[in-house]
Amino acid sequence: MATSLLGSCTPRAVTAQGRDVNTLYDIFFWIAAGVFVITAGLIAWSIIRYRAKPGDEDLPKQFRHNLKLEITWFAIPQAIVIVLFVLSALTLTDVNERVPEPAATVNVTAYQWGWRFAYEGTDVEVVGTPQQPAEILVPTGNLAFLLTSADVVHAFYVPKFLIKRDTIPGRTTRLDVAVEAPGTFDGECAEFCGLLHHRMPFTIEAVSPDQFQSWLDDMSAEI
Amino acid sequence: MATLDHALAHTAPRPTGVVGWITTVDHKRIGILYMITAVVFFIASGILALLMRAELAQPGLQIMDESTYNQAFTIHGTGMMLLFATPLVAGFANYFVPLHVGAPDVAFPRLNALTYWLYALGGLVVFSGFLTASGAASFGWTGYAPLSDSTYTPGAGVDLWIIGLILVGFSSILGAVNLMATIFGMRAPGMTMFRLPIFIWNMIVTLALIMFSFPVLTAALAALFIDRNFGGGFFDPAQGGDPILWQHLFWFFGHPEVYVVILPFFGVVTEIIPVFSRKPLFGYRGFVFATLLIGAYSFTVWAHHMFTTGSVDNPFFSAMTMLIAVPTGVKFFSWIATMWRGKLRFQTPMLFTMGFLFMFLIGGITGIFVASPPIDLAVHDTYYVVAHMHYVLFGGTVFAMFAAFYYWIPKMSGRMMGERLGKLHFWLMLLGFNVTFFPMHQLGLDGMQRRIPDYLPERGFDTLNALSTVGSAIVAMSILVFISNFLLSMKKGAPAGDDPWGGNTLEWATTSPPPHHNFRSLPPIVSERPVFDARHGVHGDG
Q: Which of B5, B50, B453, B485 is least buried, going by the fewest C-beta atoms within 10 A?
């Protein structure tokens, strides 16, 4: 909690793409904090300094405009948002980039209400339900998730990846990540999808490529 | 004038009592009907919010099942946006646009009555969904296809939701045409465009946004109705339709709609700040330019609601969304410069205006975060967005609405609102609002997704959710204080007189409440604040 207050309150990502988002969020946070302090400070100063004294009925000076000032306060925010736009466009390119040679490609199908994970190039498939959420293994390293939906729009959301993507019936969307360390990450459906929307959890456990391969072999043998 | 008096003397006597209200075509009475009805929907939709907060106070399902919860947030959103905020704008516009431009009524008084009754009927039709066997619509106010089609959400409640909103849509479009005609056709002599009160400039842009955005919503709803009942297939991929098309149509309406419910309130606070600072608005023309720019930009940002679909041009919509913050910033600096070296008085209307400035500032700043696609990929559909939109819509629209009520109820009723209860209302609401919505930023960053009735205890969301629920109870208390204040003031409030605040605009040049056709005479109009000029003489640039 303390570290999250000192930082910018985003959970630290476990993927390379998520770390890019962390960095971007931190930059936004400190620029925003500066804008807030200046603007709120000016409002607060006006409230405190220019409160009318009781009984003072004289009109204050009736000034109306100052073109230089008005151009300045148009130009400075314009410059700030251009900087923020460029930074986020650069990050977006990194985040959306396809990972080279994914260590695993997972075809994900969302449905009311659960997830089906199928590993490309194998027969292995893991299916979750509200009663028994899916738990899957992935290798650390580059991963590609190819996403679609069997019914309505859902969204594939692993909070610790920091990036989510909608699953849309009739289309395939794609989420590429590079998982940097082993760990267990909870996932959810983020786009409202009907009655049991809140009961679509799943778990992704990232393990070493060797462990993953032996898990995959065991799963194949079971089929 | 002789012919006018003659004509007035020979009209049939107007009905009184309930029949008088039902048959009225007087813009002021229609305005009051709009406001009262909108506030009733505000309270109804607010009660749904309180029920949701009660459910979320701790993990597990305690007071309602999933289906009821889903109906609650759907009708909360629909009710607040389309049955409260938009008609509330129509209410203030109906009452004050003719007064501000020095007109006796709106351009088409009978059409005006029709728009109100279409709205009231449409609202009841939406809420009547709760009486059907399968309940009200339950897919969120955004109605995303294909969840909203008859396969995934069957039942009459949804069709009632669609028909009700189509009625409300027609009401909004016709009302906008009427008010636009009033502003362009019925201004008092001397009121040139750059002498219009800034409230009117904000209304002009608002009305244009309604005229261009509501037809799109209404058409999309008609398409959805056809899909549901006649196998239209507009949004069904199996029939060659496209669910993403719905999102485009909905948000092409939905984002201008956000400005429909905020621009008029920018107008309200821009009237209040000069009056309570005793100075003219700083940078009038820049402010008008900023308003026009917001209006134009607002039609180019809709797909920032769709970054996570992977189906839209994220950089373009991101750029436009960030740009729209700039004219909003210009408005903030205009407001600050208006207060600068003024002599500020902090009666209740000004207090709520200050609350608006701080709260909307927070909502505006988080708006820049979600305009950045990579950040949006993280926080989209989480409580971060819930926090952001409530800082904009509640911290913005609702705080400014109360500023407007405390400012204008004396004009509409002839009685002042109580100051002590007004201040209590303000401080309670400011506290309750922040306790409710500020923690949601952190919940969203931690990954709590929207539109869930329950969360697992191990996700660690319980403390902040409990806090948020406590805040919602404080907000509810503050609303009760307002209602008591209103009822007491209408009975025993001090007489307001024509001009209790030292106002600028023409509504303060007539009695409180104004007579049937508003004005016996008008002061000369040589600036945007004719009543100030009549009181103090004309002040040019100083």
A: B5
